[in-house]
């Protein structure tokens, strides 16, 4: 495999992530009293997607260290958005899940992200067919990766 191609892929992936994080996830949910930046919002979205997850695995997926993810979870727990439970398969471990308030926050966040994407799309003249094409490409990327990597 070409190292240049791999570098280009990772450069483009970083460019995509930086754009998405800055423009989409760094939002305040105006209908709640909570305001979070990108990392807590990604954390909330990932926990919602996984339903429950070990803090170590959460940190690995998000690419942050143990102290950072612990601090993020502590903040979310203090705000009543997540709860820590013992892992039934290994009582030494914990699993993090969203509370009802965390689920509500997630849906508010998704509404804000949807509004943000819609606004950006409209202001730049992006058509719905462009968004469908973008979705199709992302779906294809995930499908390709799932052939080789089974756990996210």
TrEMBL record:
SUPFAM superfamilies: Winged helix' DNA-binding domain (SSF46785). Signal peptide: none annotated. SMART domains: HTH_MARR. GO terms for molecular function: DNA binding; DNA-binding transcription factor activity. Keywords: DNA-binding, Transcription, Transcription regulation. Residues 1-150 form the HTH marR-type domain. The keyword Transcription applies. This is Transcriptional regulator. It comes from Methanolobus tindarius DSM 2278.
């Amino acid at each position: 495999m070409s190292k240049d191609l791999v570098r280009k892929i990772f450069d483009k992936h970083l460019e995509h992530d930086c754009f998405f994080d800055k423009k989409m996830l760094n939002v305040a949910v105006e209908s709640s009293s909570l305001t979070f930046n990108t990392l807590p919002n990604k954390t909330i979205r990932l926990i919602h997607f996984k339903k429950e997850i070990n803090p170590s695995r959460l940190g690995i997926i998000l690419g942050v260290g143990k102290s950072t993810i612990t601090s993020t979870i502590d903040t979310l727990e203090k705000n009543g958005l997540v709860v820590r439970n013992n892992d039934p398969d290994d009582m030494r471990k914990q699993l993090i899940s969203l509370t009802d308030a965390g689920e509500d926050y997630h849906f508010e966040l998704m509404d804000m992200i949807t509004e943000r994407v819609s606004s950006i799309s409209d202001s730049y003249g992006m058509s719905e067919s462009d968004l469908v094409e973008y979705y199709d490409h992302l779906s294809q990327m995930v499908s390709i990766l799932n052939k080789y990597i089974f756990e996210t």
